[in-house]
Amino acid sequence: MYRYDDFDHRFVDERVAQYRDQVRRRLAGQLTEDEFKPLRLMNGLYLQMHAYMLRIAIPYGAFDSAKMRKLAHITRKYDRGYGHFTTRQNLQLNWIKLEDTPDILAELASVEMHAIQTSGNSFRNTTTDPFAGVAHDEIEDPRPYAEILRQWSTLHPEFSFLPRKFKIAVSASTEDRAAVKMHDVGLYLRRNDKGEVGFEVMAGGGLGRTPLLSHTIKPFVARRDLLSYLEAVLRVYNQYGRRDNIYKARIKILVQSLGAKKFAEEVEAEWLASDREAAALPDNYVREIASAFALPAYDNTPVDEAAFKRDAAANPAFARWLRRNTFGHKSSNHAVVTISLKPVGETPGDCSADQMDLVADLADELSFGEIRAAYEQNLVLPHVRRDALFGLWKRLEAAGLGTANIGQITDIICCPGMDYCSLATARSIPIAQDLARHMAAKEEAIGTFNIKISGCINACGHHHLGHIGILGVDKNGEEVYQITLGGDAGNNAAVGTIIGPALKSDAVTGGIDTLIDVYLKLRQDGERFPDTYRRIGAKPFKEALYAVA
Amino acid sequence: MLLLEDGTLREDGWHHVADDEAIPASGDITVSFTRWKEVGATLNGRSGKLGLRLDNTTAPADVAPDLSHFQLIVLNFPKFTDGRAYSQARLLRTRHGYKGELRAGGNVLRDQLLFMRRCGFNSFIVGERAVKEDWAKAFGEFDVFYQTAQDGRPWVMRQRLNAAP
C-alpha cells in the first residue's frame, strides 16, 4: 500500500502545526466560532449532540495494522474505547474534546493518517472498491488513481470553498462495489480500443433531499488528462453551482438544471480552453505511484483442498461464513475476507478498541498487515490464504466478529442517527438493532438483501439506495419512518420510491417483515428484491403493508 | 483599510469610487465593472492609475478585452466561504494573461490567505485585526503543495518527477 514520502510527511506535520495554532487562536478568542467552524470542519471536527465528533480519513478505505492499532489507541486514550466506521470508508469518534484534537491529529500523522477534508464544502474522502487490487473481476487496480486524487484534492487552492461538499468514487471492476453513481463525480476505469487506460466520467449524483444518479459527461478521458478534466468540472461547478440555498448547492442540482448534455459541453469548453499540460498526469508518474500498490509476495503452495472441504463440511457455521463473507481473489490460493461489523442486535459499523487490535493482529498474521474499510461499514482482510480461513473464522467468532451476514438482510447500513448526530431527526440505531434481531431467523431463506437506514434527509445511511430504505423523520415531535422500495447501488443503481405514509417506530419491524413476506411469495427464480419490485410494482407491497398497519 | 502586500501592512492608497460618486480628476482610483462599461473611454486621459472592482459573478472572459486598461483588479469575497473569486483569479492570471496587481477584498481572513496567493492574488484587504495576529505568517505555514497553481511555487508531482532517477 501507499507509504508517505518526505513530502507527505512534511505536509501532514505542517497541517497539524497549522491546526494547533488555529485551535490556540480559537481558545484565545482571536477567532470567532463562525470563523473557526470551517477550519475545524476541514479537519473533520464536528460539534455533535454530546461532544465533538472527529471523523478520521481512511483514504479509499485502505489502511494497515499499524494504523488500526493507532486508531485503537486513540479511542482508548481520547474517547470511550470504540469507533464507528462510516459509509465514506472513514472512522468517527464520538466523545472528543476540542483541546485534545491537535494531539490526536499529531498521533494520526505519525502513522501517515489525517482527518483533512472529512467535512466542509470541499473534496471529501475519495472512495473505491474495498476489494481493490485483489478482486478477480478487476480491470486494473484503482488505488493508484484514488491516491493521486487524494493528493490532488488535498487543500486545493482553487476548490477549498465550493458551494457544497464534493465526493468522488472510483471503480475499476466489472461489478461496481463503490456505489459510483451516487457521487458528485464518479469514475469508471475503462480501456479504449487501443488498450489505453482512461475513465468514463460521471457527474451529478448525490443523495440527500434530492436523490439523483449521475450522468456520463465524457465516455473516455485519457488517464493523462484525468486531473485537468476534473479541474474543468470543478471550475464550472465552483463558478455556477448555487450558493443561495444549501439544499440546492450540490453539483447534482447544477447538472439537473442545465441538463447533463449542456453541463458536459460547458465542461468540455472549459477543459479545451485550459492549460491541459500544466496538470497532465505522465505515465511514469502513475507507474511510480502504482508501484507502491504492488501485490505482496504470496505463498503459492497449493491449498490442501481436501482438508479445506473437510473443515467446511464438518462445520456448517464455518461453511456459511465462507459462502457469505469471502470473495474470489486474483490468486486461487487466497480469499478476500469481509469481517462483519454487524453482529445481530449491535450498532452497525461500531468497533471496539479490543476488536481493532485483534483485526490488526490478524492482518499481520494472515493478510500482509493490510486492512480495508468498506462503505457498507464492514472491514476487509484482502489477502488471506484459504487454508488459514478456518482458524481465522474461529478467532473472529470468539471476538464477536464472526457474523456470517455479508450482503444479507442483517448487514444493515445505518447512520449514527439521533443517538449521536445533531443533524438527525430520528434515531436509526435502535431501528437497525430491532430489525436485525427479528430478521436473523429468516436470513437464510431471504438471501441477498440490503436494508439502509438514515436518521435524517441527509442520507448518510444511503436509504435511497437500499432494496428497502428507511428514513427517520420528525413528525410533530414523534419519530416516524418513511419506507422506500426498490433502491439499488452499484451497476444497476436506482433510487427507491416511497411506498406510502410513514410508520411509527414500533411498526417498522413488523412492516418490513410484511414486505419481506410479499417478496418471498412473489419472487421468481432467486430474483433480487429490486428486480421483483420492478417487475411487479408497488401495489402488492402497499396493499400488504397498509392492510396490517 | 489595511492592505497586506509583499508581507507588509500599509494603508490602502487607492480611492474606490462608488457608482454614484463623481470620478475625481486625479489620484489612483478603482471603479466597478458597471461604471467602467458606462464611462470607460473617458477615464483614459486622467492622471493616476486605474483599477477595476469585479463582483464574483462576472465571468473573467467578459473583462478580458479591457484588461490592458487596469493596473489593479479587486475581486470580492462576500463571505469567506464563497470561493468563486479563486476561480476568477486563476482565469485572469492564466487564460487572460493579467499581470497587474490582483487584490482580494471583502471577507478576507488569515486562514484563506495562502489559498488566495496560490490562485494569483498578490494583495489583500485585511482589516485592523491583522496587526496583532501577524497575518504575514499565514503564507509560510506550508511548503508542500499538491497542485500546480499561480504562485510559481514547486509542487509535489513535479518535484517527484524531477527527483526520479
Brief overview:
Chain A is α+β, with helices and mostly antiparallel strands and 549 residues long. Chain A contains 18 helices and 21 strands.
Task: Give a quick set of tags describing it.
heterodimer, A: 549 residues, alpha+beta, Sulfite Reductase Hemoprotein, domain 2, six-stranded mixed beta sheet, five-stranded antiparallel beta sheet, 21 strands, 37% helix, globular, B: alpha/beta, TIM Barrel, eight-stranded mixed beta sheet
Assembly state of the chains shown? heterodimer
Mean of all residue-level pLDDT scores of chain B: 93
Gyration radius of chain B, rounded: 17 Å
Structural domains of chain B: how many: 1
Strand content of chain B: 15-25%
What average pLDDT do the residues of chain A reach?
Answer: 96
Q: What's the structural domain tally of chain A?
A: 4
**Contiguous uncertain segments of 5+ residues of chain B:** none
User: Alpha-carbon distance between the termini of chain A?
Assistant: 52 Å
Written description of the protein model:
Chain A is α+β, with helices and mostly antiparallel strands and 549 residues long. Chain A is 37% helix and 18% strand. Chain A is built from 18 helices and 21 strands. Chain A has helices spanning 6-27, 33-41, 65-78, 101-110, 143-152, 226-240, 251-258, 260-273, 283-291, 305-314, 316-325, 353-366, 389-398, 429-439, 443-446, 508-522, 529-536, 539-548, and strands at 45-47, 52-56, 62-64, 82-85, 91-96, 127-128, 168-171, 185-191, 197-203, 215-222, 326-328, 334-339, 350-352, 370-373, 379-385, 413-414, 451-454, 468-475, 478-485, 497-498, 503-504. In chain A, strands 16, 17, 18, 19, 20 and 21 form a six-stranded mixed sheet that branches. In chain A, strands 1-2-5-4-13 form a five-stranded antiparallel sheet. In chain A, strands 3-14-15-12-11 form a five-stranded antiparallel sheet. In chain A, helix 1 runs antiparallel to helix 2 (33-41) and helix 14 crosses helix 16 (508-522). Chain A starts with 5 loop residues before the first helix and ends with a helix. Chain B has 165 residues and is an alpha/beta fold. In chain B, 25% of the residues lie in helices and 21% in strands. The longest helix of chain B is centred in the middle third of the chain and has 10 residues, at 84-93. The model of chain B has no long low-confidence stretch (mean pLDDT 93). The interface between A and B is large, with 42 and 39 residues.
